[in-house]
Specification:
- This protein has 14 helices and 23 strands.
- The chain is α/β, with parallel strands linked by helices.
- The protein has a five-stranded mixed beta sheet, sandwiched between helices. Strands 14, 15, 16, 17 and 18 form a five-stranded antiparallel beta sheet that branches. A four-stranded parallel beta sheet has the order 2-1-3-4, with helices on both faces.
- Strand 16 and strand 17 form a beta hairpin.
- It starts with 8 loop residues before the first strand and ends with a helix.
- It binds adenosine monophosphate (AMP).
- The site of adenosine monophosphate has 17 residues, from strand 11 and strand 17.
- Adenosine monophosphate (AMP) binds next to strand 11 and strand 17.
């Protein structure tokens, strides 16, 4: 059924080996796959199924009846996937065919589907596995991120193409630290791939270090800022291992820059560089007009090269970030404006925040506009503003201010209403995107030019 049909295939589950079988089966059958982690709520699954144009689903575990029903109503058929071989498909297949579609947060309220071509995936995997000098048949690679996040593409394909083992941590195991550490320490992990947030969580265990993980040769990070403090702690705990920082958005296939971080680099400044571009990829900074800024000057980072997605699925509203830009070498080039503020100094790329309202919350990419959109759609809500609350300079949790006619001029807490809103949001948003704190007020304060006064809102919270 997989080979005879066409169109993308949803692969539903969590960390089962059946997910991998589904991915490889789709690659072999020439159909894009859409990883659907079990944490994605029903309303969002429905949107993703619609936007991706999926025609089939492979269940790596049985799905709840309402999900099965919803997919059946959309005419999506269930397919079994035959056991598939290894990842030589990457090199053999048409480079322009779509390998997978990963969905990220979208500011309009709909998740954004990012299709990634076989050629982009092959380019990324070839670059990183060569650079990381993986030993065929000898590696055990950590999988921390669910397969619906593009960070997992890094560990999944590094293990597949090196003939290694993937040590996949389930959400349930991560929630039980004692069992988690026992599982990690009994493994013969050689390559660590995670967000910096996850490794910070692990560093809280005093036993997390070389003695417990004696085979660990490299730790590779992506997805958010790796701080100097975290890098130093890791250099101390794993003196014989290599620490790598890599950077890139889903739109450019996981990562496009990398750098080994050592004490010399840590000593150079408060912000670690994210690395040098992969061979064949180009990263530079532009001003608002899209023209390159001078080397070392801060601008918006843009990326060009074979790892670029062709653009979001079914998105016709507003600018997407993909398009032709003035080429630093003359003429123009198809590039992706990342929304990341940064600079390129001496060939090294630095990423220092955002030009928009996208945030990273414990490694998860979120558009605050998307969350506000869903709160505003609720009955009686007149306006909403969501703010990231910071701890040590990074987002720790979200707070929502909700304009509602039942309240006064000063923000109030209302546990019952907050719970009701959380409940409504949970059918469209994943749990990590639901604000922890809610405050209700008759109207949100505005600045002199009529925009929501987010500075004042932030001062309303402790
Ligand atoms: P995602 O598409 O979920 O991988 O998120 C991509 C975004 O994560 C980038 O546009 C950056 O804002 C951020 N990011 C990724 N890697 C790094 C890094 N090494 N340092 C700082 N920010 C990063």
């Amino acid at each position: 059924a997989l080979r005879s049909g066409t169109g993308p295939v949803l692969v539903y589950g969590h960390k089962e080996s059946g997910m991998l079988v589904g991915f490889l089966g789709c690659l072999a059958a020439g159909r894009p796959y859409v990883p659907m982690d079990v944490s994605i709520p029903l309303g969002r699954i429905e949107r993703i199924a619609h936007i991706s144009g999926a025609t089939a689903v492979h269940f790596a575990r049985p799905a709840p009846a309402e999900i099965q029903q919803c997919l059946r109503n959309l005419g999506i058929i269930e397919v079994g996937v035959p056991e598939a071989g290894a990842a030589e498909y990457l090199a053999r297949e048409d480079p322009d065919r779509i390998a997978y579609i990963i969905f990220t947060s979208g500011s309009t309220g709909d998740p954004k589907g990012v299709p990634v071509r076989m050629g982009s995936l092959a380019h990324f995997v070839h670059w990183l596995s060569t650079e990381q000098r993986l030993v065929p048949g000898r590696e055990t690679v950590l999988n921390q991120a669910p397969f619906s996040f593009d960070l997992s593409v890094m560990d999944l394909y590094l293990s597949l193409t090196s003939g290694g083992t993937l040590l996949s941590l389930t959400a349930d195991l991560i929630a039980r630290p004692r069992d988690l550490f026992a599982r990690l320490y009994e493994s013969d992990l050689t390559v660590w791939v995670s967000t910096p947030s996850f490794v910070r969580f692990c560093l809280a265990d005093p036993a997390f270090g070389e003695l417990s993980l004696p085979n660990l040769k490299r730790l590779v990070f992506c997805g958010e800022t790796l701080s100097v403090a975290t890098a130093r702690a890791l250099l101390e705990r794993f003196p014989k291992a290599e620490i790598w920082n890599t950077y890139g958005p889903t739109e450019t296939t996981v990562a496009v820059t990398s750098l080994r971080i050592d004490e010399t680099i840590c000593a150079k400044g408060a912000v670690l560089p994210v690395g040098y571009p992969a061979e064949g990829m180009r990263v530079w900074a532009v001003g608002e007009d899209g023209y390159p800024v001078a080397g070392g000057e801060v601008g918006e980072l843009v990326i060009a090269g074979p790892q670029l997605s062709p653009g979001y699925l079914r998105r016709t509203d507003g600018p997407t970030g993909f398009g032709p830009l003035p080429n630093p070498g003359g003429g123009s080039v198809f590039a992706y404006r990342t929304g990341d503020r940064g600079h390129v100094t001496g060939g090294l790329v630095y990423c220092e925040g955002r030009v928009d309202r996208q945030v990273k919350l414990h490694g998860y990419r979120l558009e605050l506009d998307e969350i506000e959109h869903h709160i505003r759609a609720l009955p009686d809500v007149t306006d909403a503003a969501v703010l990231p609350m910071l701890r040590d300079g990074t987002a720790d949790y979200l707070a929502a201010f909700v304009g509602h006619p039942n309240y006064g001029d000063e923000p109030e807490e209302d546990f019952a209403r907050a719970q009701a809103i959380r409940q409504c949001l949970s059918s469209d948003l994943p749990a990590y995107a639901i604000p922890r704190v809610f405050r209700f007020v008759s109207a949100l304060p505005l600045t002199a030019n009529g925009k929501v006064d987010r500075g004042r809102l932030a001062r309303w919270l402790p």
